[in-house]
Amino acid sequence: MFPPLTNEELHKLTESIKTHGLRHPIVFGPDGVLLDGRNRLAVCKALGIEPRFTTYEGADPDGYALAINIRQRNLTTGQAAVIATKAQASTETNEHLAPEAAMQSLSEKTGISTGRLELADFVMRHEPNLVDPVITRAVSLDEAHEIALANKVRAQASQQHLARLRVEAPDLADRVITGELTAIQAWNKHRERIKEDVRQRRVATYLLCDVVTALAQTRGSRTFAKYDPQYQAPGRSVTRETIANAMTALTEMDAIWRERNLP
Protein backbone atom coordinates (compact mmCIF):
# COMPACT_ATOMS: atom_id res chain seq x y z
CA MET A 1 0.00 0.00 0.00
CA PHE A 2 2.73 2.46 1.01
CA PRO A 3 5.59 3.26 -1.37
CA PRO A 4 9.00 1.86 -0.44
CA LEU A 5 11.44 4.13 1.33
CA THR A 6 13.76 6.12 -0.88
CA ASN A 7 17.46 5.46 -0.54
CA GLU A 8 17.82 8.71 1.38
CA GLU A 9 14.99 7.85 3.77
CA LEU A 10 16.36 4.35 4.34
CA HIS A 11 19.84 5.78 5.04
CA LYS A 12 18.43 8.25 7.59
CA LEU A 13 16.43 5.51 9.34
CA THR A 14 19.47 3.24 9.44
CA GLU A 15 21.69 5.97 10.90
CA SER A 16 19.03 6.88 13.48
CA ILE A 17 18.66 3.30 14.73
CA LYS A 18 22.43 2.78 14.66
CA THR A 19 22.96 5.92 16.78
CA HIS A 20 19.89 6.00 19.04
CA GLY A 21 18.57 2.46 18.90
CA LEU A 22 14.99 1.55 18.13
CA ARG A 23 12.92 4.39 19.56
CA HIS A 24 9.51 2.97 18.67
CA PRO A 25 8.69 -0.74 19.06
CA ILE A 26 7.43 -2.90 16.22
CA VAL A 27 3.65 -3.21 16.49
CA PHE A 28 1.73 -6.39 15.74
CA GLY A 29 -1.99 -6.94 15.80
CA PRO A 30 -3.68 -9.51 18.06
CA ASP A 31 -3.66 -11.93 15.13
CA GLY A 32 0.08 -11.54 14.57
CA VAL A 33 -0.19 -9.26 11.55
CA LEU A 34 2.51 -6.58 11.38
CA LEU A 35 0.81 -3.20 11.74
CA ASP A 36 3.71 -0.79 12.08
CA GLY A 37 7.50 -1.00 11.76
CA ARG A 38 8.17 -3.03 8.64
CA ASN A 39 11.10 -0.83 7.64
CA ARG A 40 12.40 -0.50 11.21
CA LEU A 41 12.30 -4.28 11.59
CA ALA A 42 14.27 -4.76 8.36
CA VAL A 43 16.91 -2.24 9.47
CA CYS A 44 17.24 -3.90 12.89
CA LYS A 45 17.83 -7.27 11.26
CA ALA A 46 20.39 -5.76 8.92
CA LEU A 47 22.25 -4.13 11.85
CA GLY A 48 21.95 -7.17 14.11
CA ILE A 49 19.92 -5.21 16.69
CA GLU A 50 17.29 -7.04 18.71
CA PRO A 51 14.03 -5.11 18.12
CA ARG A 52 11.32 -4.47 20.70
CA PHE A 53 7.77 -5.62 20.00
CA THR A 54 4.34 -4.67 21.24
CA THR A 55 0.79 -5.74 20.49
CA TYR A 56 -1.97 -3.37 19.49
CA GLU A 57 -4.92 -3.73 21.83
CA GLY A 58 -7.45 -1.41 20.22
CA ALA A 59 -10.59 -2.25 18.24
CA ASP A 60 -9.43 -1.02 14.81
CA PRO A 61 -6.05 -2.49 13.85
CA ASP A 62 -6.44 -1.58 10.19
CA GLY A 63 -7.30 2.01 11.04
CA TYR A 64 -4.38 2.20 13.46
CA ALA A 65 -1.92 0.85 10.88
CA LEU A 66 -3.14 3.32 8.28
CA ALA A 67 -3.10 6.36 10.55
CA ILE A 68 0.28 5.66 12.18
CA ASN A 69 2.04 5.00 8.89
CA ILE A 70 0.58 8.10 7.26
CA ARG A 71 1.84 10.22 10.15
CA GLN A 72 5.30 8.63 10.17
CA ARG A 73 6.01 8.58 6.45
CA ASN A 74 7.18 11.57 4.44
CA LEU A 75 4.15 11.72 2.14
CA THR A 76 2.54 14.47 0.13
CA THR A 77 -1.10 15.19 0.94
CA GLY A 78 -1.99 13.65 -2.41
CA GLN A 79 -0.12 10.42 -1.66
CA ALA A 80 -1.65 10.20 1.79
CA ALA A 81 -5.16 10.85 0.48
CA VAL A 82 -4.92 8.16 -2.21
CA ILE A 83 -3.35 5.62 0.17
CA ALA A 84 -6.07 6.25 2.77
CA THR A 85 -8.87 6.06 0.21
CA LYS A 86 -7.44 2.90 -1.33
CA ALA A 87 -7.04 1.31 2.10
CA GLN A 88 -10.61 2.09 3.09
CA ALA A 89 -11.94 0.73 -0.20
CA SER A 90 -10.19 -2.60 0.44
CA THR A 91 -11.69 -3.07 3.93
CA GLU A 92 -15.18 -3.23 5.37
CA THR A 93 -14.50 -0.36 7.74
CA ASN A 94 -17.31 2.20 7.82
CA GLU A 95 -19.25 0.34 5.14
CA HIS A 96 -22.40 0.93 7.21
CA LEU A 97 -21.91 4.71 6.97
CA ALA A 98 -23.15 7.06 4.26
CA PRO A 99 -20.34 8.12 1.86
CA GLU A 100 -20.11 11.60 3.38
CA ALA A 101 -19.94 10.23 6.93
CA ALA A 102 -17.35 7.62 5.93
CA MET A 103 -15.24 10.33 4.31
CA GLN A 104 -15.44 12.49 7.45
CA SER A 105 -14.52 9.51 9.62
CA LEU A 106 -11.48 8.76 7.46
CA SER A 107 -10.44 12.41 7.61
CA GLU A 108 -10.61 12.44 11.40
CA LYS A 109 -8.68 9.16 11.62
CA THR A 110 -5.83 10.16 9.29
CA GLY A 111 -5.74 13.95 9.61
CA ILE A 112 -6.23 14.35 5.85
CA SER A 113 -8.72 16.99 4.72
CA THR A 114 -12.00 15.75 3.25
CA GLY A 115 -11.26 17.85 0.16
CA ARG A 116 -8.13 15.84 -0.65
CA LEU A 117 -9.89 12.58 0.17
CA GLU A 118 -12.72 13.50 -2.21
CA LEU A 119 -10.22 14.13 -5.01
CA ALA A 120 -8.58 10.78 -4.30
CA ASP A 121 -11.94 9.01 -4.31
CA PHE A 122 -12.82 10.65 -7.64
CA VAL A 123 -9.56 9.44 -9.17
CA MET A 124 -10.15 5.91 -7.89
CA ARG A 125 -13.62 5.81 -9.46
CA HIS A 126 -12.87 7.46 -12.79
CA GLU A 127 -9.16 6.80 -13.48
CA PRO A 128 -8.00 3.90 -11.26
CA ASN A 129 -4.89 3.40 -13.41
CA LEU A 130 -3.47 6.59 -11.89
CA VAL A 131 -3.83 5.48 -8.27
CA ASP A 132 -0.42 3.79 -8.05
CA PRO A 133 1.37 6.58 -10.00
CA VAL A 134 0.05 9.06 -7.42
CA ILE A 135 1.27 6.83 -4.58
CA THR A 136 4.76 6.66 -6.12
CA ARG A 137 4.74 10.43 -6.88
CA ALA A 138 4.96 9.83 -10.63
CA VAL A 139 1.81 11.94 -10.91
CA SER A 140 0.37 14.44 -8.46
CA LEU A 141 -3.15 14.02 -7.12
CA ASP A 142 -4.22 17.28 -8.76
CA GLU A 143 -2.91 16.14 -12.15
CA ALA A 144 -4.61 12.77 -11.75
CA HIS A 145 -7.87 14.50 -10.82
CA GLU A 146 -7.75 16.67 -13.94
CA ILE A 147 -7.26 13.58 -16.11
CA ALA A 148 -10.03 11.71 -14.30
CA LEU A 149 -12.38 14.66 -14.69
CA ALA A 150 -11.67 14.86 -18.42
CA ASN A 151 -12.26 11.12 -18.73
CA LYS A 152 -15.58 11.41 -16.91
CA VAL A 153 -16.70 14.21 -19.23
CA ARG A 154 -15.72 12.13 -22.27
CA ALA A 155 -17.51 9.09 -20.87
CA GLN A 156 -20.68 11.09 -20.28
CA ALA A 157 -20.50 12.56 -23.78
CA SER A 158 -20.02 9.06 -25.21
CA GLN A 159 -23.08 7.80 -23.36
CA GLN A 160 -25.15 10.73 -24.62
CA HIS A 161 -23.92 10.21 -28.18
CA LEU A 162 -24.72 6.50 -28.03
CA ALA A 163 -28.22 7.19 -26.73
CA ARG A 164 -28.90 9.55 -29.64
CA LEU A 165 -27.32 7.17 -32.14
CA ARG A 166 -29.69 4.41 -31.04
CA VAL A 167 -32.55 6.64 -32.20
CA GLU A 168 -31.01 8.53 -35.13
CA ALA A 169 -28.51 6.03 -36.54
CA PRO A 170 -29.05 2.50 -35.15
CA ASP A 171 -26.51 0.99 -37.56
CA LEU A 172 -23.76 3.20 -36.13
CA ALA A 173 -24.92 2.45 -32.59
CA ASP A 174 -24.51 -1.26 -33.35
CA ARG A 175 -20.94 -0.65 -34.54
CA VAL A 176 -20.19 1.08 -31.23
CA ILE A 177 -21.64 -1.82 -29.25
CA THR A 178 -19.53 -4.35 -31.18
CA GLY A 179 -16.42 -2.24 -30.59
CA GLU A 180 -15.87 -1.43 -34.25
CA LEU A 181 -16.19 2.30 -33.53
CA THR A 182 -15.98 4.46 -30.43
CA ALA A 183 -19.04 6.53 -29.59
CA ILE A 184 -17.22 9.70 -30.63
CA GLN A 185 -16.14 8.19 -33.97
CA ALA A 186 -19.69 7.00 -34.66
CA TRP A 187 -21.09 10.39 -33.71
CA ASN A 188 -18.70 12.13 -36.09
CA LYS A 189 -19.79 9.78 -38.89
CA HIS A 190 -23.40 10.58 -38.06
CA ARG A 191 -22.67 14.29 -38.28
CA GLU A 192 -20.95 13.76 -41.65
CA ARG A 193 -24.05 11.95 -42.89
CA ILE A 194 -26.26 14.81 -41.77
CA LYS A 195 -23.95 17.32 -43.44
CA GLU A 196 -23.97 15.32 -46.70
CA ASP A 197 -27.75 14.96 -46.57
CA VAL A 198 -28.11 18.75 -46.22
CA ARG A 199 -25.78 19.24 -49.19
CA GLN A 200 -27.78 16.82 -51.33
CA ARG A 201 -31.06 18.46 -50.32
CA ARG A 202 -29.69 21.86 -51.27
CA VAL A 203 -28.45 20.65 -54.69
CA ALA A 204 -31.70 18.81 -55.41
CA THR A 205 -33.78 21.81 -54.42
CA TYR A 206 -31.81 24.22 -56.61
CA LEU A 207 -32.03 21.78 -59.54
CA LEU A 208 -35.78 21.25 -59.27
CA CYS A 209 -36.43 24.95 -58.81
CA ASP A 210 -34.52 25.64 -62.02
CA VAL A 211 -35.83 22.77 -64.18
CA VAL A 212 -39.44 22.41 -63.08
CA THR A 213 -40.09 26.13 -62.83
CA ALA A 214 -38.65 26.70 -66.31
CA LEU A 215 -40.70 23.80 -67.70
CA ALA A 216 -43.88 25.13 -66.11
CA GLN A 217 -43.31 28.53 -67.71
CA THR A 218 -43.45 26.94 -71.20
CA ARG A 219 -47.03 25.75 -70.71
CA GLY A 220 -49.36 27.27 -73.33
CA SER A 221 -46.54 29.14 -75.05
CA ARG A 222 -46.16 26.66 -77.90
CA THR A 223 -42.43 26.64 -77.16
CA PHE A 224 -42.45 22.90 -77.73
CA ALA A 225 -43.53 23.42 -81.37
CA LYS A 226 -40.43 25.48 -82.03
CA TYR A 227 -38.03 22.69 -81.00
CA ASP A 228 -35.42 22.17 -83.74
CA PRO A 229 -32.94 19.26 -83.39
CA GLN A 230 -30.23 21.19 -85.26
CA TYR A 231 -29.99 23.64 -82.38
CA GLN A 232 -30.05 21.13 -79.53
CA ALA A 233 -27.30 21.30 -76.94
CA PRO A 234 -24.64 18.56 -77.25
CA GLY A 235 -25.63 15.54 -75.23
CA ARG A 236 -28.94 17.07 -74.18
CA SER A 237 -31.30 16.19 -77.00
CA VAL A 238 -35.03 15.85 -76.28
CA THR A 239 -36.58 12.58 -77.51
CA ARG A 240 -39.85 10.82 -76.89
CA GLU A 241 -38.02 8.73 -74.28
CA THR A 242 -36.78 11.89 -72.60
CA ILE A 243 -40.32 13.29 -72.55
CA ALA A 244 -41.69 10.03 -71.11
CA ASN A 245 -39.05 10.01 -68.40
CA ALA A 246 -39.76 13.66 -67.62
CA MET A 247 -43.50 12.91 -67.30
CA THR A 248 -42.70 9.98 -64.98
CA ALA A 249 -40.41 12.21 -62.89
CA LEU A 250 -43.15 14.85 -62.62
CA THR A 251 -45.66 12.20 -61.56
CA GLU A 252 -43.27 10.93 -58.89
CA MET A 253 -42.60 14.52 -57.81
CA ASP A 254 -46.34 15.20 -57.51
CA ALA A 255 -46.76 12.09 -55.33
CA ILE A 256 -43.96 13.26 -53.02
CA TRP A 257 -45.50 16.72 -52.76
CA ARG A 258 -48.86 15.19 -51.84
CA GLU A 259 -47.24 12.84 -49.31
CA ARG A 260 -45.40 15.72 -47.63
CA ASN A 261 -48.39 18.02 -47.96
CA LEU A 262 -46.30 20.67 -49.69
CA PRO A 263 -48.04 23.59 -51.44
How large is the count of helical segments? 11
Which structural category do the helix and sheet elements fall into?
mainly alpha
The shape, in one word, is: rod-shaped
Number of domains: 4
Radius of gyration: 38 Å
> Helix amount, in percent?
55-70%
Number of strands: 3
Mean pLDDT comes to 91
- Helix-strand string: HEEHEHHHHHHHHH
Report, as a whole number of angstroms, the end-to-end distance. Answer: 74 Å
Uncertain runs are none
Largest sheet: 3 strands, mixed
Strand content: under 5%
What topology, given as strand order, has the largest sheet? 2-1-3
Task: Lay out the secondary structure.
Blueprint: H1 7-20, E1 26-28, E2 34-36, H2 38-47, E3 53-55, H3 61-72, H4 77-89, H5 99-110, H6 114-126, H7 131-135, H8 141-168, H9 170-177, H10 183-217, H11 240-259
Parallel strand pairs: 1-3
Antiparallel strand pairs: 1-2
